[in-house]
Amino acid sequence: xxxxxxxxxxxxxxxxxxxxxxxxxxxxxxxxxxxxxxxxxxxxxxxxxxxxxxxxxxxxxxxxxxxxxxxxxxxxxxxxxxxxxxxxxxxxxxxxxxxxxxxxxxxxxxxxxxxxxxxxxxxxxxxxxxxxxxxxxxxxxxxxxxxxxxxxxxxxxxxxxxxxxxxxxxxxxxxxxxxxxxxxxxxxxxxxxxxxxxxxxxxxxxxxxxxxxxxxxxxxxxxxxxxxxxxxxxxxxxxxxxxxxxxxxxxxxxxxxxxxxxxxxxxxxxxxxxxxxxxxxxxxxxxxxxxxxxxxxxxxxxxxxxxxxxxxxxxxxxxxxxxxxxxxxxxxxxxxxxxxxxxxxxxxxxxxxxxxxxxxxxxxxxxxxxxxxxxxxxxxxxxxxxxxxxxxxxxxxxxxxxxxxxxxxxxxxxxxxxxxxxxxxxxxxxxxxxxxxxxxxxxxxxxxxxxxxxxxxxxxxxxxxxxxxxxxxxxxxxxxxxxxxxxxxxxxxxxxxxxxxxxxxxxxxxxxxxxxxxxxxxxxxxxxxxxxxxxxxxxxxxxxxxxxxxxxxxxxxxxxxxxxxxxxxxxxxxxxxxxxxxx
Length: 583
Known about the structure:
It is a single chain. By secondary structure, this protein is of the alpha+beta class. It has two domains: 36-187, 3-Layer(aba) Sandwich (Glutaredoxin); 194-525, no CATH class. It is built from 14 helices and 27 strands. It has a seven-stranded mixed sheet, with helices on both faces. Strands 2-1-5-6 form a four-stranded mixed sheet, covered by helices on one side. Helix 3 runs parallel beside helix 5 and helix 7 (211-218) packs across helix 12 (504-515).
């Protein structure tokens, strides 16, 4: 009886301790994420965003019902992510909807059509049945609403087609939930957008070729284009002080960021002065400049073409700002293939994909947020960049550079596709890691310090800039999207010849986010995601071994535990019996 009472007291004591521990822990919130890249931990920027919500954010997730196993897992991960968000903000509310529940074929078609019009893309799923192949649709998306505004979110993220395996796409989509949903909430709750403008007037890329860039930036900022025709009001907010004399004052800049996408005509000194003063007043510029005239279209029409330095009258300005864009061309062994005619078969031209060394594929090496975890970036006729003026106090960061096997070609030069038919001499590729994109930050000095003939007093001349930053890219085509055969713009970074997508769009968005001081978006986009998928070859080779191990090992452990318990009890009984006999 005494032993029984003692066990009861121990049981109730442990129960009381467990209840007390849970009550105490309810007043504190903490979670332990044991993954190396902290994949289940919300980034600081997302937590700050959620804690600052002033109204309800309602999420309708259309990923519910009879789903394939992998989509069911994506649905579960989405629910877990939203639950995680609710820990930091009770303003997050959600529901999961099965769009096919209780609907006939006609009603279901109308529902899918409505969701498609709202920006969600139903995905066809094929099931093998006894009657053949049955096709049904899954809607891996959500609608997020906030204060009478609503935007769609695609939960199935294939990173613009880079991933082709369905398992990889699902896993990648689960890793990108924080970015996709968090970015949608950020866009809905953003009170004031930064103003971004594409500069026009010097032969820059037309709207069709920067369509992908403009659409991508428009998700975050107000996008405009400004024709640079020497009118001060194009870049500055101007207030007329005397309508008779035309006197005015400049009250500020109109745009937070200017994007100059592949200019081909020179800038006048007055235009350079306005750009200079735009920077001095805190404006930011993202330069995509080709120092050399070279176009693949010319090679498609003619057997060879000259590569000449492009005169833009910007060299002195760039030098003052801490960089020099060299009038050379870079060749890289790690290059983008292009289609080259190899002959004819039955009257049809035959093409072969051959790496074109003038189109380097740039693999980001820096850990800077602009390029961290960025996919390979494709370039066309890119040049090298030098950093200059080490005593200027400006901070310079190389964002993109070539591979360890690079060759420089001085200009003027003759470029011919015939070089593709010759084996490259690897001894000539003796240069390495040549910069092609550089970030410059700090307080800039005006190029026009000491000038007296540019009406500086009326403009309110600034000799030193406010702290600001610029990015210089020595390839104007890095921001250019291709055009399809049906004459519509393709996504930025997609190459229609290799049917692959590269990281050009994400590089652009990262650069724009950084220049607009939206580094919290970069924190989420550049988060480490390690795909821990099973090795398909090992699965096939070792399938039987692991199946036997998973079945036999638990049984062996139970058997071993039983034998140990039997031996322990036998030992105790034998010891007790001996002690009794000795008494």
